[in-house]
Structure formats: C-alpha cells, structure tokens
Amino acid sequence: MRIDLQSAKSHIPFFACKTKPRLRHQLALKKIVDGLGDGREVTVVGGGFIGVEMAGVLAELGLRVTLVEAAPYMLAPFDSDMVKIAEREMQAQGVRLLLSDSVTAFHVQEDTTIQVALKSGASHKAELVILAIGVAPSTEFIRDSGIELGPKGHILVNDAANQL
Questions:
Q1: Boundaries of each FAD/NAD(P)-binding domain copy (predicted)?
Q2: Residue 50 DSSP SS3
C-alpha cells in the first residue's frame, strides 16, 4: 500500500484502529467526524470486528461509508450464513461493501480529500480513511500466566467459550 502525501496540506484525514478504540481514540475520532458533517464520504479499510463496527456507527451518524475488505467476505471468524446476514444488514444501513478488493494506494489531494486506489483498478474519493487492518489480540501481559494462547496470540476457549 502506498500513501502519496506530496501534495497534502497539514491536515491528513487518516485514523488508524489497531485495537478496540480507547476513550482518547474515540474522542479524537469524534472530533474528526464532527468536522465532516452529514453525508460526507468515509472509507473503512478492513472487514473485521473493528472495521465493521466503525462502518456501522459512522453510517448511523449520517456519513456515506465504503468498507473495503480484501477477503471475499467480512467477519472471517463467522460461518458464511452469519456473514451473509451481517453483510445484508450493513448494506441496509447504507454501507457500500467492496469485497475481494484491496487498497493499493492513497493519494491525498490538494483539498485534503483522499483518492483511494484499489487493486481492481477502481478508485473512489473519501474525506476520511479509517484503517482497521492488522488487528492482533493484546494479550502480551498474560503470555507467562499459564493461560493457553493460540498461534496469533488469542486466548483459546472450548465450545462453551470457557478458557482451556
């Protein structure tokens, strides 16, 4: 992914979510969103838990939201029946889903809007981009506690969601 900042002004409209947003992140995002006003274009990159939640909330706030996900479906941990229901609900809220496509570059324009270039060759403009990709569990603090962790750092549980 490439970000072209050559022509950008001092205000760069990006917001990154690596973990569940904390209060300070929520306040910063609220300030950014309040400055956009209704009907503005927002792109959320990443169709995992955080990206889907962000897209839904922003759509409820009256923003036009595009969610870009490289996989053929969002919410990878769920089965296909659940994902289809969630995708229909997101679309009913007005969220445009761009699945099986990925961002190749961001080009910040003179007016601080962002041209979002996709692998498919398509592109669209956004006034805010939220990066909700590459999320990893924050379990470093329990690594030596005896709690069994999976290969990606998540806590392993059984079918009843009890810790193993």
A1: 29-160
A2: helix
Q: List pLDDT tens digits, range 40-78.
A: 899 999 999 889 998 998 898 888 999 999 999 999 888
CA angle centred on 97, ends 94 and 98, rounded to 5°: 150
Q: Residue 19: helix, strand or coil by DSSP? A: coil
- Burial class (CB within 10 angstroms; exposed 0-12, middle 13-18, buried 19+) of 101: middle
Separation of alpha carbons 47 and 67, rounded Å: 7
**Amino acid letter, 11:** H
Q: Which domain holds residue 164?
A: 137-164
Taking CA atoms, 5 is separated from 2, 12, 107, 148, in Å, by 10, 9, 7, 43
- Structure pTM? 0.72
- On whether both 147 and 74 belong to a single domain, the answer is no
14-24 confidence digits (pLDDT tens): 556 655 555 56
